[in-house]
Design brief:
Oligomer: heterodimer
Number of domains of chain B: 3
Helix content of chain A: 40-55%
Structural class of chain A: mainly alpha
CATH architecture of one domain in chain A: Orthogonal Bundle
Structural class of chain B: alpha/beta
Shape of chain A: globular
CATH class of one domain in chain A: Mainly Alpha
CATH superfamily of one domain in chain A: Cytochrome c-like domain
Number of helices of chain A: 5
Strand content of chain B: 5-15%
Largest sheet of chain A: none
CATH topology of one domain in chain A: Cytochrome Bc1 Complex, Chain D, domain 2
CATH superfamily of the largest domain in chain B: Thiamin diphosphate (ThDP)-binding fold, Pyr/PP domains
Order of helices and strands of chain A: HHHHH
Shape of chain B: globular
Distance between the termini of chain B: 62 Å
Radius of gyration of chain B: 28 Å
Strand order of the largest sheet of chain B: 9-8-7-10-13-14
Strand content of chain A: under 5%
Number of strands of chain B: 19
Largest sheet of chain B: 6 strands, parallel
Radius of gyration of chain A: 16 Å
Largest interface: A-B, 37 and 46 residues
CATH topology of the largest domain in chain B: Rossmann fold
CATH class of the largest domain in chain B: Alpha Beta
Chain lengths: 122, 659
């Protein structure tokens, strides 16, 4: 699958199209609903919380959502990280499911403004 | 005085019961006239042996078969009464313990002869709970408690609590009953529960232990144990308490029993040359950073640390072993500030290596890799009393970190001389640079605060409830009280320390030390006991896994009317382990098997979900739950606070995000 990503990446570069939306294996049909289920099934929630909010102790303070990384950076990190997060191979987390997860993260709305939360604005 | 162990003086062929009823107490009262020895002289005459040739009277027969109505069977003053006299000299307020036959002698003396005061016996349902209570109590009150346990089975239950206290540098005085005399102790269960050397079980993680073989020996050992436990670095101590010594009457054999006077030992202070060199480095630094962990143990310690930080305008990283430095202060900083430091002074750090290095659990072949966080040439200074008391077996001393100045000394005790040395070492020309550091720190503090609040707002309305919301809904209900966060078990992303304006020493009592799960619940109850007497309001963040180790401590809290607000961080799993299994599954290129749970098999606490609120209610607590809707959380905690203010414990069971 990595070859596929590289190929599509080169293609995107060549024809000047946005990378997202051209992914292999059904990424065009990525589903936020399925992604939410996959986010739980593959254990993403364990370190990142069910809404991708992250934690200083489990995700080094990294926040997945709202405003997730673009697909290219996101998928590259998931596949190859040598930092605190263990990498997920395609065998463990298939590309379609990863794309769904990304779609789920994109669907998470922006957080409330701190000023609108009395407990945080006192 | 000849040494004696247990009941060896009873001799062969002598029926123990007859021996005990016939014994005459010799000698006069001790030099310091403990109450028990004063009584011993009079008791001897009343229990003089009858001529053995006479036929037994009805009274004699009754004496052989049941306790006389008006005369103690023991035939003198119990040795354990004298032990109670010794214990009472040290002003120990409570004695949390699970009862056991091997210490029945001193148990009886404590509650009857001693009047169950100073110390007051607190009924515990597990020895680990008793030690955990003593652990938490000390961190709130600054005074140690005594705990008793069965010398073998009970001590085995207690060990994890003792290890936590050892790692957290907390004094706890533990006494284990043990029947040494194999020829005379009861067979069967009491013999299963006896050992040659019960202290061996905990010798690797106690500061000192002893097995007194006479009452005078006990008095010396008890005062010595207290003294050692209370000299920095603090730590638990262990005394094996022979059953025979407790139960037999006082026989002074011509030597007067006395109780040694306790004089606190002055804590070790940093060598003057090392202090001067540390001050020189700090004063010359462009970007000094102070890192603290178990550094202060009093409001004075906090005040001194603030003075040092302000003198240098050095940012302070509080690792959280205690509440060392006010979170509201502009110099309070995250750990990342060590990255740009040119001098780092670490005071009583549990893990200096971990402060200046990182371990990434994601290396080749499943082995993690290390990275330094600091710049080359950064000077490191350490002040730690733990260097004076390092043992070999258990690895609580962590990785070895080379430093430039090392002081084997107590940090709080060294702070006044360090302050003076730094004042002398700062040149007048440094004033502008120091003021500039202050301005930069204030700006960084404000920016950091804004970032933290934005992070707290994420998933604010989520269900399960976010840990930031859990913490702030709790804060809203306690902020106007004289509050003390006594424990935060599990992990709520450190939100209390990031969001609550902690400024007093008791606002945060730190963690377990040894990371043995099961500390949170008993330590909270113990600390709440201390805070009750000090007029403070106690709150804990109580995790699910921690509570299930020994939930019986909830009953102890209700039984002894210890007010505590426990707000549960119920993420329904052993979350740390859950992540570990997920990590290893990824490394091995396998999909983690979940079974029917949310986490890998063996790491979830669900199916069925535990009704912690019902568990608490069954043991006499007010409770609410499970709360899954964040909108319902504030009102439930508000109700619980009202209950706690009335003197009762209350628990709110909340379903939360993982961290």
């Amino acid at each position: 699958m990595r070859h596929c990503f590289r190929g599509v990446g080169l293609l995107a570069l060549f024809i000047g199209l946005p990378f997202v939306g051209l992914m292999c294996d059904g990424a065009l049909a990525a589903s936020a609903e399925k992604g939410k289920i996959a986010f739980m099934k593959y254990g993403c929630w364990q370190c990142h919380g069910t809404q991708g909010q992250g934690s200083v102790v489990t995700s080094g303070g990294k926040v997945l959502a709202p405003d997730p990384l673009p697909w290219e950076g996101f998928s590259a990190f998931v596949r190859g990280t040598n930092r605190g997060m263990p990498p997920y191979s395609e065998k463990v987390l298939p590309n379609d499911d990863l794309a769904d997860i990304h779609a789920y993260l994109l669907s998470i709305p922006k957080a409330k403004d701190v000023k609108s939360i009395p407990l945080l604005s006192q | 005085m000849p040494r004696k162990i247990g009941r060896k003086e009873s001799g062969l062929g002598v029926d123990r019961r007859k021996f005990l009823t016939g014994v005459a107490v010799a000698g006069a009262a001790g030099a310091v006239a403990p109450k028990a020895t004063q009584a011993a002289a009079g008791a001897g005459a009343a229990t003089a042996r009858m001529p053995s040739a006479l036929p037994p009277t009805a009274q004699t027969i009754a004496a052989e078969t049941m306790p006389p109505k008006d005369m103690a069977r023991i035939g003198g003053v119990a040795g354990s009464d004298f032990m109670v006299d010794a214990i009472k000299t040290l002003d120990i307020k409570y004695l949390p313990a699970n009862c056991a036959s091997s210490y029945r002698g001193i148990h009886e003396s404590l509650i009857n002869y001693g009047g169950n005061k100073m110390p007051e016996f607190l009924t515990c349902t597990h020895e680990e709970s008793a030690i955990g209570m003593a652990h938490g109590y000390f961190k709130a009150a600054g005074k140690p408690l005594l705990s008793l346990c069965h010398g073998t089975v009970g001590l085995q239950h207690a060990t994890m609590g003792i290890y936590n206290a050892w790692c957290d540098r907390v004094p706890v005085i533990v006494m284990g009953g043990n029947d040494l005399d194999a020829a005379h102790r009861p067979p069967g269960v009491p013999t299963f529960h006896s050992a040659q050397d019960i202290n061996a079980l905990v010798r690797d993680f106690t500061k000192w232990d002893d097995t007194p073989v006479s009452l005078q020996h006990f008095a010396q050992s008890f005062v010595r144990a207290y003294k050692i436990a209370m000299t920095p670095p603090f730590g638990p101590v262990m005394i094996s308490l022979d059953a025979g010594l407790q139960q037999e009457p006082i026989r002074e054999n011509g030597e007067k029993l006395s109780i040694p006077k306790y004089t606190p030992t002055s804590p070790p202070q940093g060598d003057s040359g090392a202090v001067k060199e540390a001050a020189r480095l700090l004063a010359a630094a462009q970007n000094p950073v102070i890192v603290v962990d178990r550094t202060t143990r009093s409001e004075n310690g906090v005040r001194l640390l603030v003075q040092l930080a302000e003198l240098l305008q050095a940012r302070v990283v509080d690792m959280g072993g205690r509440m060392n430095f006010p979170k509201t202060h502009h110099l309070s900083a995250p750990l990342s500030v060590v990255n740009n430091a040119d001098v780092v002074i670490g005071m009583e750090l549990a893990d200096f290596w971990g402060v200046v290095n990182s371990y990434i659990d994601n290396g080749e072949h499943g082995i993690g890799h290390n990275e330094t966080k600091i710049k080359p040439g950064t000077k490191l200074i350490s002040i730690s009393a733990v260097e004076l008391n390092t043992k070999s077996n258990y690895q609580d001393f962590q990785r070895f970190q080379p430093v430039d100045v090392a002081m084997a000394a107590d940090a709080e005790t060294t702070l006044p001389s360090l302050l003076e040395a730094v004042k002398s070492a700062i040149p007048a020309s440094a004033k502008a640079a120091i003021e500039k550091r202050a301005e930069a720190a204030k700006k960084a503090k404000a920016e950091g605060r804004a970032r933290t609040l934005k992070l707290a707002a994420l998933a604010w309305d989520a269900s399960p409830i976010s840990t930031a919301r859990l913490v702030m809904e709790t804060w809203a209900q306690i902020k106007d009280l004289d509050w003390s966060l006594v424990a935060s078990s599990g992990n709520v992303s450190n939100w209390p320390n990031r969001l609550w304006p902690m400024s007093k020493h008791y606002h945060w009592l730190g963690t377990s030390g040894g990371y043995g799960v099961g500390y949170g619940a008993p330590a909270s109850v113990g600390a709440a006991l201390a805070n009750r007497d000090l007029g403070r309001f106690s709150v804990s963040i109580q995790s699910d896994g921690d509570l299930m180790y020994a939930p019986g401590v909830l009953w102890t809290a209700a039984r002894h009317k210890i007010p505590l607000l426990a707000v549960m961080h119920n993420n329904r799993g052993y979350h740390q382990e859950l992540m570990h299994v997920q990590r290893l599954s990824n490394f091995r290129n396998r999909v983690a098997s979940l079974g029917n749970d949310m986490g890998p098999i063996g790491t979830s606490i669900m199916n069925p979900d535990i009704e912690y609120h019902k568990l608490a209610e069954s043991m006499g607590w007010w409770s609410r739950g499970p709360i899954k809707d964040p909108a319902q959380l504030g009102p439930a905690i508000k109700e619980a606070v009202t209950v706690v203010k009335s003197g009762q414990p209350a628990l709110v069971n909340v379903w939360t995000q993982p961290r």
